[in-house]
Amino acid sequence: MDQETAKKLLVEGGTFVFLGVPQETQFGIDMQCWNTEEDFRGIKMIPPGLHYIHFSGVSKGTGDVSPRSGFMHYFHKKEFLVKMWDKDTEDMSKEEITEESIQRLKDNLFNLDRHLAPYPYEIWQKWKLLTSQIPAELAAKLSPENGMIRASVELLSMTDEERPRGVKSTASVESQESAEESTQVSGEDKEEVAGQSTAKRAKRGTQEEREDAMLPDLKPAPGMSMRFTEIPRDKYPPGSTPEEITKHYLDQSYSLELMIAQHDEPLHIIGELQFAYLCFLIGHSLEAFEHWKNLVILMCSCDDAIHKYRSVFFHFIRTIEIQIEEMPEDFLADIVMNKNLVYKKLREFFRTAYVSKVDGRLLTMIERFKDNLTDKLQWDFTGLDADEEDERPVIVQLNEAE
């Protein structure tokens, strides 16, 4: 960085002190990661704003790397944050550092300074773009209750009462049904009732549902799960007619509005998209990747909302463009080779922009985004004026009740 910026950050930048970190531990801030040396004590000259601190323990004997853990923190000017390493858990200690200990470190800052690595300022401009819509309160709202974002979350078994929609396990339901039937019938009638019961169970769900029911039901340990906004399962308002249901499945603006309503302001939905992406890209969270993907699919499935929330979709284009540039190559290859939903939904989004006659600056951004994807990644977006073979509507004739 230039001398003027360096002097400014020395005065205004934040400091993160991480005491007791073993040598060769993987430690990083934002998109930069290193293996620590013996005298490592933390990071200095951190630009004020939101940052993602992350780490992975490394086994001395085998060199195995533990799943990544980390947390988001908004550094204010001159903030001095101190954390400790826990040797027993090979993780960041949960104990709070006393104000007295922090003050001693501040008083000894001259000697501590040489053990602090400077913030990698060359990534700062790109990092600001990736986090442009994530205020401190939104990051705290979406993070797990315990504040730690982990690639590997501890899972616990669910009781019957905790199962989705209160459904008991297949084994317990079948056992209960058999017991009830045995008390009600006897002799030859048992065989007939047993056959009826088997038929009922066969109709209870699809093959996939029955297979899922055989798997153990697990839930994240308390305080460890992400707190993303739930994407609505019902994509249409209660009491909708068949025609309205069809409309809401084709144009999912209603679902997007329900999610936006759960935020303090509309642009926070873009902040959630950015947050989920960073938890996947940096935090290695597959849960975050699924949420990011589903959010992209949802926003690409809207028509009316493009006009109502122009600012949201303007920032959606800016965000998804920089995100795709940073995405690992194997994920990009999967998008194109398998023509997965992200690729298909981007085609649908571009087609919707033309059909719904988006104009002005937003249309210019959409055109540029589409052209950049084609030039840099050779993604094919030709033939947007024609429906894909598997996207053509299926007409079903309904016989009216006599």
UniProtKB/TrEMBL annotation:
One of its GO terms (biological process) is spliceosomal tri-snRNP complex assembly. Keywords: mRNA processing, mRNA splicing, Spliceosome. CDD domains: Aar2_C (cd13778), Aar2_N (cd13777). GO terms for cellular component: spliceosomal complex. Residues 13-144 form the AAR2 N-terminal domain. It holds the Pfam family AAR2_1st. It comes from the Eukaryota. Residues 156-221 are annotated as: Disordered. InterPro entries: AAR2, AAR2_C, AAR2_C_sf, Aar2_N, AAR2_N_sf. Residues 169-186 have a biased composition (Low complexity). Residues 228-381 form the AAR2 C-terminal domain. Component of the U5 snRNP complex that is required for spliceosome assembly and for pre-mRNA splicing. Belongs to the AAR2 family. Interacts with PRPF8 (via RNase H homology domain). Component of a U5 snRNP complex that contains PRPF8. This is Protein AAR2 homolog. It comes from Spodoptera frugiperda (Fall armyworm).
